[in-house]
Every structure is written in structure tokens, then in C-alpha cells.
Amino acid sequence: RGSGPASGAAGGMAEQADSSNSSSNCSMGGVGSAAAAAAGGGVDDCSFAETDDCTTRHLALTLRVDFPGRRLEARAALTVEAQRDGLTRVTLDTKDLKIIKVIVNGVEAEFSLGDAQGFKGSALTITLPSELLRGQQAVVEVSYETSPVASALQWLTAEQTAGKEHPYLFSQCQAIHCRSMVPCQDTPSVKSTYSARVSVPKELVALMSANRDGELPDALDDSRKIYCFQQTVPIPSYLIALVVGCLECRVIGPRSRVWSEKEMVDDAACEFEETETMLKTAENLVGAYVWGQYDLLVLPPSFPYGGMENPCLTFVTPTLLAGDKSLSNVIAHEISHSWTGNLVTNKTWEHFWLNEGHTVYLERMICRCMFAEQCRQFVALGGWKDLLEAVKTFGPTNPLTSLVPELRDIDPDDAFSSVPYEKGFALLYHLEELLGGPEIFMGFLKYYIQTFAYRSITTEDWKNCLCSYFCNKTDVLNQVDWNAWFHSPGIPPFTPHYDTTLADSCRSLCKRWIAASDSELNCFSEKDLLNMSSHQKIEFLALLLLEPPLRLNNVKRMQELYKFNNVKNAEIKFRWLRLCLRSHWEKAIPLALEMVTVQGRMKFTRPLYRELYNFEKARQQAIDTFTTNKPTMHPITAALVAKDLHLV
């Protein structure tokens, strides 16, 4: 998912081993605690799937999109392969699905749907007509319907779209929501190819996280057409994605198009015109792009993330359309996922940092290549502050700020935070400095990707790979406190030292505003920001947010000079409104309520709702606004904001 999540955290380890334990030694392997040893085995507590018994090799989907009923009428044919002799049953993950029938190798099969178990959903257990030996395959075909409240799907009315004429549907399967759209082994430890045929009203366009494979008339309904897709690279279930809407596209490169509603497609094409440059830069760093097409889809404003790295079709939020390409680092992040995350994948959600820490590292290396090392240092400095804020929000001893958490009985959505992104990056940057610099460490990153391509791995696998590659530097690696990095909550055991050149002017201006009395407010000028880039303005506001609230008169003067209320850049506006709310400026309340209403990106929406809740005069307005808007919000966002507002 796009860099810079809002809050929440990854769950913490139940046990902590003494940091002097021999497993801290690189040559001994191990991730350093009993709980981590269990996680290192790759057991996914978020899934019912018995992956040691069988695994999915291919998924063939047939979907009919029913907008009036807000459901998918569907058939999923899973080619499963036995991993042991005597396999007599297959267990799949489901959530809120209506199972109609199951056929195995052409023969109707018995099945049972277990009781719902909270966020995990229900286990679908299918009895095979005949037992399988290890290596044998069977085609398990499940006919089913999704629920109108499926957590993977958001159905938008025509009024909720930019064009106001046609309805819209999009999916978000990460982390464990695919089971509400497809009965499957909903764990990142299982990867399969997939194909799909999607029937939609013929005035609409369907796209998926796969290469397009033609269109057909729907023989059953001449008001509809069928879109066909093929994904030939094995992927985990969380990367299956679907969108249906009145979409147009523009070509932005030899292998890229940008898709959106026509009202914003030209703006998007301009904003993301550097996509091919970023792709080529990434290929020069870590090898060939294996996915064929790299398209972008700009979603409606309710999309909960900055971006989602769905293969062949990255989903992005319209809040990236700043008009000056200043927020395109999210595209570099999603492109980087084509290698780190999509090609090499965390085996369970405990090891999510493997996806995101490496992706942030590669994203910033793309920045370094396209711009300068100073740029990478500046962005990394901002990321470190995001980590400090996440740790401050949850408390320095909260186990939810560990890098490798235990997620037993924890919904991975509740574990989403800056921690795996920025603590993960901080570890990799620390290793880069210890082992000889960016060029040397990029050699390891490329080797790591080549070693584990098309596989799902654990932190244990990663660490063993690191120690193998740097076998001549074992003495250096043995100096790293692995237990503290992986399992201790709070700030990492080593604080990185970044080049502050681009941040110095931000820090200086920040200090002036903090110290200014009423009589000194005339010393500021609109020219203060004249030579600052958008990223430096973001940094300036981020620094102020780390300090106690500004005096109200200072905030009012800042608006008078800098006119932050009028900016288009969502990253600037979001931080500015938080600053105003903390200073209890009542004029900011309607602006903040407007921002949480017109867009649904959790990075912005959740902190703003929390700030509104903490401002007593705004609290009831925040609750009333949420209650009114909840039916039209993305289900993931609505569930988490309800917790932020202490409504559940």
C-alpha cells in the first residue's frame, strides 16, 4: 500500500528473548524469540487454509456484476494440488459469501460452512469425492454470491462518482478481504495464476490486476459485455483486484496507460507522465519488470489508501493530483512493489515489513537516481518523523510498535501503520551504512529479489539470505542487535543520521514560529515560503506537529501570510488543518469536516477525525459527520474511524 499510512500499528511479539541470546548472532540464524520462531515457520493465524495439505495453482473466475443488488454472482474454479498423500478435504477462507454448490472434477461435492469468527470470516470445508496423493491436482469449482456488505467491495452510486451518470465498483483485498469476494486460500503464503471473465453493463469498463485479454458479447444478455483477463505470474490472493466504471484511458508510456473517469483523466495523465522513467530506473536497479503492462487507475475519492500495488494496474487516490507532480513518490513506491511485495512476498502478515520496508528503500533509491542523494536523505528524514509520531501515538512500550509482530487474534487492518514502512527502512538504511554504502547494499537487494522471486518468505529467510550474501562481513552483522530491531517496541535501537541540508530552512522557520510572541508576528512574510518546494512546506508543518500546539494568534497570522487554507496539495492541507485543530482554531473545524467528507484516504481521514475528537468543541460535530457519511464510506475506513471516535 502507498507509503505514509495514517496510524494503527503492527501487533507485538508475545515473548521477548534476551538480546544476548545466541540467535542474535548472524551466523546462528534465527529471528530471536520463541514467538518469532512460530512466526518464522510461516503459520498464518489469519487464515483457515490448511496450506501444508494443499495449495492453489490456478484460479479461474467467472463474475457477473450486479449493481442493483450490490453483489457478484460468481463461480471460482480453483486448481488445487495435494502437498501430502491421502488428502480428503480442502479448506478455503470465506467471509459473508452465499455458497450455492461445489463441484470437484465434475462431480458435485459435499461442503460445510463454519461459524463466522469475527474478522476471519468462515471456513469452507469441501469433502473431495476421492482422496489425492501428493502432487495430484483437482479442480474445485465453487458457485457463490457475494454479500452487499462484502468488505472487499465498495459500491458507489452514480451520484458518488465524478460523472454522476453511472455506478462504480472497486475492490480492496489487502490484507484479508479477498475472502469476501472469492472463496480462496486467503493467505500471502499461497501464490497462483488467475484468469477471469467479467460480465458488466456494456456502457461500463472492467479492469483487473491482470493483463487484458479481449472482450466478448454476453450471450445471455445483449445489454452486457464480457471482459477477459489473464495473470500469468503467480500472485497471492490479496493482489486480486477488480474495478468497474465509466472509465477512459490515456497512454502515458510504451507499457502504461492511466485510467479514470473522464473528468480527471487528462489531469492524471499529466501528473503521472514520469511513470516510464520511474519504471526504467527501477529496472536498472533491480532487474526486468516481469508483469507486462503497468497501468494506473485513479479511483474515486473514497479509496482508503494512497496507492495499492495491484499487478498490472496500480490503484491510486485522487489526492495525488496536486497539479505539480509533487506527490508522485507514491507512484515510485507502487512501482517498487512490482519487485518487493508482488514478486517477493511476506509469507504472513507478521512479516509485512519485508514488503513495505524494502519497497520504501527501493522507492527512495529511485528518488536518488532521478534527482539526487540529498533528495533521498530529505525524504528519509520525513519518514523518520512519521515513525516518531506513530510511536508517540501508541506509546514507546506498546508492543504494537514492534517490527515483527504476532497477529494471533489481531485483524491485520488494525495493525496497519508507519512502523513496517519506516522502521523497516531504518533497519535497511542502518545496514547500508554498516556494509559499505548504497551501491553495495543495492547489490544485496538485487540478489535478494533474484533469490526469492515468485516466493513468499519470512524474516528468518531474509536474514539468512543477508548473512549468506555478506558472509565475509559476519563480524559487522553480529554487532546488530537483531532482537531489538525485530521485537522491541518503540524507537529502533539505532537512530539514523540523515543529511539535513534541505530541511535546515524548514527547521529554522519552525523554530521562529514556535518562539514568536504577538509583537514578533510582523517579522514574518509571505516570502518565507518563496524558495521552498512542496516537500519542504510539508516538512515545515510536520516539524510543527512534533511540538506543543502553537498559540492561536500564531496560527491565524500564518494563514494570513501563507494562505494554507487555499492549497490544493492534500499533504500540506492535511497537516495544516491538524495544526489548526490542535491550537483550537474554531474556523478550522468546517474545513477539517469537509476534508474527511470529500475524500476517504485513511492517512488523512483518521488523524483528522482524531484531532476533531480531541477538540471538545468539534467532538460532537465529528461524530455526527461520521454517522451521516458512514453508509457511503469505504467499509475498511468506516470500521477504523469508528474506533478512533470511540464508538465501538
Overall average pLDDT: 93
Q: Kindly name the structural category.
A: alpha+beta
Task: Show unreliable segments.
Answer: 3-23, 28-41
User: Mind telling me the C-alpha Rg?
Assistant: 25 Å
Rough outline: globular
Q: What topology, given as strand order, has the largest sheet?
A: 5-4-8-2-1-11-14-13
What's the count of strands?
22
What portion of residues belong to β-strands? Answer: 15-25%
Summarize the structure.
This protein is 35% helix and 21% strand.
Identify the notable features of this structure and list them briefly:
22 strands, 8-stranded mixed sheet
Task: Please characterize this protein's 3D structure.
It is a single chain. This protein has 648 residues and is α+β, with helices and mostly antiparallel strands. Helices cover 35% and strands 21% of the residues. It is built from 19 helices and 22 strands. Strands 5-4-8-2-1-11-14-13 form an 8-stranded mixed sheet, with no helix packed on it. Mean pLDDT is 93; it is low at 3-23 and 28-41.
